[in-house]
Each structure stands twice: as structure tokens, then as C-alpha cells.
Amino acid sequence: MDPAEIIARLDDLGRQFEARLEALDQEQAIRACQAAYLGGKGEVTALRKLIKQVEPAARKTVGQAFNQVKERITHATGVALQRLKESEERAYLEQPVDLTLPGRQPRGIGRLHPISIVMHDIVDIFVSMGFDVASGPEIETDYYNFAALNFPADHPARDMQDTLFIKEGKTLLRTHTSPVQIRTLLKRPLPVQIVAPGAVYRRDDDPTHSPMFFQIEGLLVDEGVTFAHLRGTLETFIHKVFGKDVTLRFRPSFFPFTEPSAEVDIQCISCKGSGCRLCSHTGWLEILGSGMVDPNVLEEVGIDSERYTGFAFGLGVDRVAMLRYEGIGTIKLFYENDPRFLGCFRS
Ligand code: PHE
Known about the structure:
Elements: H1 3-22, H2 27-38, H3 43-48, H4 56-93, H5 114-128, E1 132-133, E2 139-141, H6 142-145, E3 165-167, E4 171-173, H7 179-187, E5 192-201, E6 212-223, H8 227-242, E7 248-255, E8 258-267, E9 284-293, H9 295-300, E10 308-316, H10 317-324, H11 339-342
Parallel strand pairs: 1-5
Antiparallel strand pairs: 2-4, 3-4, 5-6, 6-10, 7-8, 8-9, 9-10
Helix pairs in contact: 1-2, 1-4, 2-4, 5-10
């Protein structure tokens, strides 16, 4: 094979490539064109096979010619791509700008989460009735969350199915705010009158249950406390939150740490008791659990249950928030942190 012929063909390919490049104004096309010459199946690559047929003495010169054309094509490609980028930038900068358009609104400063708003409002109501605010840890021991609250050893809430354990049977994420009752009674002198707001955790996850939600615990222990005090306190509270015309009812219930126990329902604020989807056609909405502190609980923390009595209640903040902001179909919205949702509430 004549080395001069190969060199001449390489030179042709270089010129041909530059000519084709002229017509291209898309990055993809430029890169494809380069590949058509230098790629595995490219024209220059195909010529390379002929080098074996060249007499050994001339191979070096032919090899250099290959390198030159390769460099020539690579260089031309680089120049074309650079020119393309510059012209795109120029076109972008030359776009007409309407200086009369309004600017983008900043999202503004942060605001309170709807759950926090409702929680603060509820705590304020109890503070106005003489309650103090207490708190406890979210990581609890079995003792404060269950044992001291008179839960029997085989109670279903102590099951792995219902409780998020950190160490089985020992440490857990509190399933309610009631352990704060125990912590407070062990710490403070009587009389005790507290509310304890905070996050609680359960193995629940569906449209009406979130694995983390918020409760407010209430506890009052003193001499001469009766069920009438419980009733009066909760009635006052519910009238302040939902309005004076809201009817409530106490329904007998059971909690290991209260005796007697009652669940409190309010007449459905949406249908006023005639039955609708919100109240599952019962006319009533469950708001909280309550009862007289079980003597076993008082004795557990060293309080004379012959002399002292008390009441306690536990209220679902999410529940109240769902009712207060009617139309929120799922509790999940409270925990997704979508600014379009959170921006709808006063701060
Ligand atoms: N801790 C109970 C619950 O989470 C509610 C409750 C609190 C009931 C205090 C009675 C007294 O369901």
C-alpha cells in the first residue's frame, strides 16, 4: 500500500470533516459527526487497518499522519462546541427582559405549625384555669409508661404489635403522655395540677392514624377531688375550644390507671348530631380519655389514696386540630411539611 495515498486520504477526511462541521449547530449532531470519523466504526478508524499493509520503514510517517488528523478533528470539534455554547449564551442574554414584571415573592419568615397553634391554645386554656405545664421524655421506660400506671403484664399495649420498643420490655417510645403523671407525682409536692403536652408514638399508620402524634395530659390530685371536678373542668375546656353550644357526653370506658374511666365525646360539629361522614354517622366525635386516678397509681408513688383523690385526662391534639380546621381529610397532611399546606394557617 502506498503511504502517500493513505496520507492523502487522511487529509481528505480531515477537510471533509471540517466542511460537514460548518453546517452543524446542535451539540448532539457535532458529537455524532466526530464519532463518524474517530469512533470505533468511524472512517479514520477504518483506514487505520491499512497501516499493516504499509512497508515498515514508512509506518512511522503514516502513524504521525493519523495522529495529526485525529488532532485536527478533535480540535475542530472543540472549537465548534465552544462557538455553539457562546452563541447560546449570547441568545440567552439578548432575550428581552420586561422590567415592569413584579419580582418573586419571598416565602416569608417561618410560622407556627397548625398542631403547635392548637397545642398552645389548649395549654393556654388550662393555664387560665390554674394548671401548670409539665413535661417528660419521649424515650420512656416500661416502668413509667406501663408498670407504674397499673398496666397488667399481659396488657396488649405492652405488645410489640402496638408499641415501638427500643429495647424489648425495657425502653420504648412513650405510647401516651400519661407517664408524665408518674414523673410529676414523684417530683412535686401535693396538690398537683398540671397539663403535659407532647409527642407520643404508636405502631399505627393509616389515613386517620400517624405513628407519631400529639397528646395533652391533664392531672389534678388533691384532697376532696371528685368526678364533678373532672366534668366541670372538661366542660369548661370544651366550651372554650368549640363554643358554648357544643354538647358533650361522658361514656363509660376503661383505662388501667383510672377508675372509674370515661371517654368524652362532643356532638359532631359538622352535622350537629344528625350523622355524617366526619362522625361515621354516630353524631358524636371522640375527643379524649379521662377518669379518676386509680388508687393503685397513687399508692405506687407513695400517696395516701384514702386521703387524696385526683382526676386525669388525655387529649388528642391532632383530633382537635382536624375538627378545628374542618376539611383536612387526613392527619398525614400535618406531618408532610408541605409549605403550601402549612402556609394556610395563622402564625
Ligand atoms: N393515656 C390514655 C390514652 O392515650 C388517655 C387517658 C389519659 C385516659 C388520662 C385517662 C386518663 O389513650
